[in-house]
What does this fold into?
Amino acid sequence: MRCPSTSTGSLPGRSPADRPAAIARRFAGIGALLTALALAGAAAAAGPKLLPAEQAFRLSARALDATTLEIRFDVADGYYLYRDKLKFAVEPATAGAGVPVLPPGKVIEDEFFGRVATYRGPVVIRLPLAAGQPGGSVSLEVDSQGCADAGVCYPPQQQRLTLPLPRAGAAPSAPVDASPPKKSYFN
Amino acid sequence: MTINQSRWLMVAAAVVALAAGAWVARTMLFAPSATGQSAAALIGVALPDADGKDQPLAQWSGKVLVVNFWATWCAPCREEMPMFVRLQRERGPNGLQFVGIAVDQADKVRQFAGEIGLNYPALIGGYGAMELSKSLGNSLMALPFTVIVDRSGRVAHTQLGPLKEEQLSAIVRQLI
It folds into this structure.
């Protein structure tokens, strides 16, 4: 009787039941399969593991030129940011931060908050600086707040980035990732 | 054993394995890193209520205490609170006590409390409240987060995310 040592499969007509080694191999295979299934069940029940806020809502920014900041959120799958909770402040104040250009986002009908716009996936926001100094730098403070579809919300968080401003005619500066957030908890 | 029978057995075993994994995840992962611990750190705090009056949690010692960390900016928190209001009304006389700790501003808490007819204390917490919830297992510091303390002052259950009514009722029934 053939009994390939590399397989625990059960081809029709094969009966390894009278061979202890084959039985052991077969049960080892079944055991491994069941363990894998149990882990899959565990993963499914636990749902997607929740991320810390700074990973769920990854923030980076760069200066396209001395008068334009580009702010980017990469919102992880299953998470969303509230558009109206985004706030930006720039120091020094003499840089003259203007009104941010926010994409419209997706408007949802929230049971409690009414019609609110939310962001998922990547979001790119432009912030004009009336008097950014070419070759200088600015400190950008970003307030944000978001939730996970799993039914939890993260407190409002405040992050700060220092952005070099390109010299006149130079290429945009490299994106800067936000440092770990400083929690603010209050709007 | 025929091949058909063993195939069905495998399917059955696979289903059992999946279910077992799911059960383990529900009971071991979601539950409660702090379960069984003394809730002394929680019971020991005093936080101002929405009128600014300090409220020590120790005043509810001996009751089954459901401490809910929440905020008005948290939709899932707002969603589960009317159920808490109802359970407080129905089971309060049996020794069930809800206490809300809001990571929020007092005026917003007062307004929302009025809207839903909150019938249990809404205490105002700040950064310290989030740290407190972290020490009880809320490592992500997200909301809602709920800690159920038994009559002897031990943590019976902690939960990040909303509680389902049947789940909460079952836990409370055992503790009351």
Notes: The first strand of chain A starts at residue 57 and ends at 65. Confidence is low (pLDDT under 50) at residues 1-17, 43-48 of chain A. The first helix of chain A runs from residue 20 to 46. Chain A touches chain B at residues 10, 12, 17, 30, 33-35, 37-46, 50-53, 85, 110-113, 145, 147-148, 150-156, 183, 185-187 (CB under 8 Å).
